[in-house]
Amino acid sequence: MLTPDQIADIQGFHKVYQNLFKTVDAAIAEAGYSLTEKDVLLEISKSEHCTANILIGQLGIDRSYMSRMLKQFEKNGLIWKTASGADSRIRYIHLTDFGREEFNRLSDIQNRQIAHAFEKLSVEDVHAVCSALVMTRNKLSDANDVITIRPFKQSDIEYVISRHKTLYYAERHLSGTFSAYVDEIVYDFVERFQPETDCLNILECNGVPAGSIAIKKAGEGTAQLRFFMLEPEMRRRGYGNRLMEMALDFCRGRGYKKVFLLTITAQVIARHVYETHGFYKVSSTGKPQWGEGVIEECWELEL
Amino acid sequence: MLTPDQIADIQGFHKVYQNLFKTVDAAIAEAGYSLTEKDVLLEISKSEHCTANILIGQLGIDRSYMSRMLKQFEKNGLIWKTASGADSRIRYIHLTDFGREEFNRLSDIQNRQIAHAFEKLSVEDVHAVCSALVMTRNKLSDANDVITIRPFKQSDIEYVISRHKTLYYAERHLSGTFSAYVDEIVYDFVERFQPETDCLNILECNGVPAGSIAIKKAGEGTAQLRFFMLEPEMRRRGYGNRLMEMALDFCRGRGYKKVFLLTITAQVIARHVYETHGFYKVSSTGKPQWGEGVIEECWELEL
DNA sequence: CAAAATAATGGACGCCGTCAACTATTCTTT
DNA sequence: AAAGAATAGTTGACGGCGTCCATTATTTTG
Hints:
2 domains; Aminopeptidase
């Protein structure tokens, strides 16, 4: 239970924090967008297979409001919609070049406002404050987030593909070749999926997909670990290990003797999870077709 | 300058924090008030001499909006207005009993929502998070708040009286006798104010009064330090010492040889400031008329 | 195949908050 | 002391964010 002093602490923080973000909000409004619109643009930009309904679920916005907002976005040339082959009720939403431009402009404005509030702090103070905020976020999230790991559904495929591409691309600046490769291997995986030998698990945070891991039979007694991915905000909180444990348990239950995985050198956090579970690097190969200086590594684990 | 990682940290925090307070906001709305209305009620409750204009300044709300809101409050029996003797344009605003009841109800709702978000955290985690938030608040405030210390104006008198009462009363549960005493000594001080021997300085944070200190001649070569007060959110940040320094500089400049002050035992933070500047306790007297167990202390400093 | 669920749209509406115009009073200036 | 500027507060008009309800088209379910 919180003491009155602690509640006062929190409210004191709340007051100055709200004040800080009031200026951010004002700057966004100045640029011609509401806060909600900015959030919607952010969500659209994150996914290649975004629908109105997904946005409604993730942001908690009214259906009709969303419909009107997207209509407006389309009219203003920020987004365009494509039909889904499978379900003709659904229209996928994509940012146009102009939409991405506008979104970047809004991000810049926001970042500049935040930076302004921090500009008088020393480097050490900035570091201390950021650490404090991350710590707070993690503790609050760990206490309140509802986390589930479940087998994949058809609708997860697009999530896995699009987030895999986006995260790898954004974080490691991989080339377009890599993008096509991801499409190929994921669709291939799903097509040839065998429940007895393969698995693809999705980690959900508060009902929203936030990570994945897969196991695929690669030969007699040998499995390949694939599609290991965590949303940035879920990292360093133990969820990577939980996904990995479940995947390795699956391997042991199916009688695999060896698991290997392919990754690229730059993935520092994932590397730590691999090491924790006993994987060791067996080889590395240059992959210039995926980007300059990209090196693919092969890691193995004897079960 | 902030690094991209640090901006991501802040935005990550922002997202979960906003989500947390979204539920608080929803609960307040459920109770029939908007966030702005809640803030206005809070400000009214804090001061005994609150005016529409003060609220506008402190909360950054539009004049007309405020006018309508207060009209509604009055109609609903939350507040009542009294005329100012000095300026007939001004109407002082006070909470009615019902208004205070409603305000307490809203505070309870808010506190319960906050407590709910923290309830799954361990005692240590709660402590760590609160400390982190206070630290963040202080660093951001120290970097961005505009602090000024200036001689008092006529309009400060009501601030000094009302905050003195409220803070002492709220924090130490002093009796009504104390309240009458404060009225008396402040009005007496102002009436007999002599610029050559006395001073009353106001500390302003972002243009809003947030503390006070006074010096009054008590005898040949002897000054009494009075009305030393800091808003809770301004404490432990060095402003008490700055006020004290200015007051003691004034004393030295005016040729005083000795300064004394009267305080009550419970004032822990102020005591620390006194000690830092070389005051020492010379006597203590029980003051049962101000409340059970209240002990007044006399501290002195030779200049 | 009928009934229920889902994706998306459109109409009506309420409330928060802003802008501009106006009154009454007080302060400033010469 | 009178005119002009500034301040406290009120009122009308209005726009945009967001909600509620009804409706259509499509898919899933029993």
